Amino acid sequence: MTPESITLSSLNLQIRNAMQEAFPDAVWVIAEIHEMHINRSGHCYMELIEKSETDSNIVAKNRATIWSSRFRMLRSYFESTSGTQLQPGIKVLIKAEVSFHPVYGLSLNISDIDPSYTMGDLAMKKREVIRQLQEAGIMEMNRELVLTDVPQRIAVISSETAAGYGDFIGTLVNNSYGFGFSVTLFPAIVQGESAERSIIAALERVFLAERSFDAAVLIRGGGSQADLDCFNGYELAMNIAQFPIPVLTGIGHERDETIADMVAHQHLKTPTAVAEFLVDRLLEFSGLLDRLQERFSYTVERIIQQENHTLAQKASDIQHLTRQYVTRENHALEVYRTGILTSTAKLLKAASTNIADQSGKLKYLWKNLHDHRKRDLLSMKERQHRTIAERLRSGHEKIRQAERSLEYLRPEKILSRGYSITYSNGKIVKSVKELEKGDTLETRMSDGKVQSTVRELDYTNEK
Amino acid sequence: MAKQEITYKAAVEEIDRILGEIEEGALDVDELTANVKRVTELLNICKQKLQKTESEVSKILKEEE
Amino acid sequence: MAKQEITYKAAVEEIDRILGEIEEGALDVDELTANVKRVTELLNICKQKLQKTESEVSKILKEEE
Amino acid sequence: MAKQEITYKAAVEEIDRILGEIEEGALDVDELTANVKRVTELLNICKQKLQKTESEVSKILKEEE
Amino acid sequence: MAKQEITYKAAVEEIDRILGEIEEGALDVDELTANVKRVTELLNICKQKLQKTESEVSKILKEEE
Amino acid sequence: MAKQEITYKAAVEEIDRILGEIEEGALDVDELTANVKRVTELLNICKQKLQKTESEVSKILKEEE
Amino acid sequence: MAKQEITYKAAVEEIDRILGEIEEGALDVDELTANVKRVTELLNICKQKLQKTESEVSKILKEEE
């Protein structure tokens, strides 16, 4: 039995109707552009996909179309607003009608693209790259290199045919100061999908001849303002940051820095600006040389002038000092002359005074001594008189005393005081025992003699 | 020439050193002429070097692709 | 001349030393004349050296302009 | 003259010494005349030396101007 | 004269010594006259020496002016 | 005179001695006269000596003035 | 006279001695008279000597004044 069946076209018509019923209005859809091409008529055909957040596997896929009239308008609006090119790899928020064509199948007919979504997404991507660079610790590496004062040997990474490259070379070679530069071009594709890889390859070639260059210049030869994505890639940024010689960028955009700009040693707006920067650097060095020369000339002149002055001063000093010297010595001699006068006069005066003093002393001493002697003589004479007088006086006194004693002891004197002397037979009687009764005694007194006879003898006084 | 081999840096440093010595009065007048000569020479080397292009502009190395 | 062999510096130092001695009265009168002569001689040497240097320097610096 | 052979310094020192002796009264009056004579002689020598030096120095310095 | 042969110094010393003896009374009257005479003589010698010296010195110094 | 031969000093000493003996009574009256005579004589000698000295010295000193 | 031959000193001593003996009663009354006589004689001698000396001394001293 033949099951009930319908033709494919009927089915597709039914699907179209069902879909028209299901999606009567356009819907806003978030998707990633996977492929994109524009045909001759200017229609844009894309393949939109959605990747799994976890493993990047494609979880959805649709075709989409932007009709040429719409596409021209949307593309320029998108690119100028977002600053990024409408190209595969970017995420977009699109307004699309779900359409089903019996022949071509399901397709999304894009009527609008919201650039702000993409901008947010790009910014996020950029932040992510920056975070990674910072984490790797290489963000500042190229900036920390020292750019020589005289960067004359330049490796240029650019597209040879680009207008920007022409501007760069023109500005550098035709600089009004006649500075010489040695420029070597390392050609690279600087826009589009293969740009990042191409630039990295060029950098690697420069790296091989690293010592021959003072700086590497990355310039973009004009082109779309929006075509900057290749300069935001992590891979390129890493290469630039770790590049052993300073990298100067002149990518030719106005709005915001690319990551390549951020890690470069120096980033300038345009290739011309890079060339001007290099010329200025040489100009600055040239100025330094001029200043050195000026300072040198000035210093040498000053030294010579100073030495001339010093010599003149010394010439004047020698005059002054010798004059001073002679004056001083003359004065010293004069002082000596005066000194000898004064000292001699003083010495003579002192001697003279001494002599006068001695003379006076002699007179004084002599007179003193003489007076003293005279006084001594006088006192001796007085002593003589006194002594002799005393001596005679004591002689007289002695005689007188003896006379007095004698007077007192004289027998006549004794008798007169009542004493008497008794004789017997002519002898002085001194004891009764010498006598016998009847002896005749003769007693002598002061005024005469008495004759008597002994009658009795009494010995009463005998002891 | 051999004198061309000196780098800008070395040249500027030598000029600076000589200038310093002259300014400090460390140099004998006898040496002054020699030093003036040397500094002048160094300045000239630098100036000439600044104007000189070592090779043709935009010598292109096309090894790519 | 042999007297030219003295350096500018040494000459100036000798001048200074002699001037110092004259100032301090350290020199005998007998020596004064000889010393003044010496200073004058040294001053001349210095002057000549300086003039020579000056002209040489002028010449060098002129050439550079 | 032999008396010219003494140096200025030695002369001044001798003057100084004799003056000192006179001042201290260390000299016998008998020696005074001789010493005063000597000092005077020395002073004259010194003066002559000084004048000679002065004129010589003046001459040297004049020539240099 | 022989008495002139004594030096001023010796004379003064002798005067001093004799005066000392007189002062101490060490001299006999008999010797006194002789000693006074001696002192007087010495004083005269000294005076003459002084006068002579004075006039000589004056003369020397006058001549020098 | 022989009596002049005694010195002033010896005379004074003898006077002193004799007077001392008299004072002590050591002398016999018989000798007294002789001793007084001696002392008197000595005193005279002394006086004469003094007078002589005075006149001589006075004369000397006068002359010196 | 023989009695004059005794010295004053001896006389005084004899007087003293005799007077002493008398005072002590050492002398017999018979001797006493003789001794008194002797003392009297001696005293006279002494007196005369004294007077003589006195007059002589006076004379000497007078003369000296």
Structural notes for this entry:
- The complex is a heteroheptamer, with one copy of chain A (463 residues) and six copies of chain B (65 residues).
- By secondary structure, chain A is α/β, with parallel strands linked by helices.
- Chain A folds into four domains: 8-127, Nucleic acid-binding proteins (OB fold (Dihydrolipoamide Acetyltransferase, E2P)); 142-285, Rossmann fold, CATH 3.40.50; 351-409; 412-453, no CATH class.
- Chain A has helices at 8-22, 68-82, 115-136, 163-173, 195-208, 234-241, 259-263, 271-409, 411-416; strands at 27-38, 44-51, 58-66, 91-101, 105-114, 153-158, 182-187, 215-219, 247-250, 266-268, 421-424, 427-428, 440-445, 448-453.
- The mean pLDDT of chain A is 88.
- Chain B is mostly helical.
- Chain B has one domain (9-17, 27-64).
- Helix content of chain B is 62%, strand content 3%.
- Chain B contains two helices and one strand, in the order H-H-E.
- Chain B has helices at 8-24, 29-51; one strand spanning 59-60.
- Chain B is elongated.
- Chains A and B meet through helix 4, strand 7, helix 5 and helix 8 of A and helix 1, helix 2 and strand 1 of B.
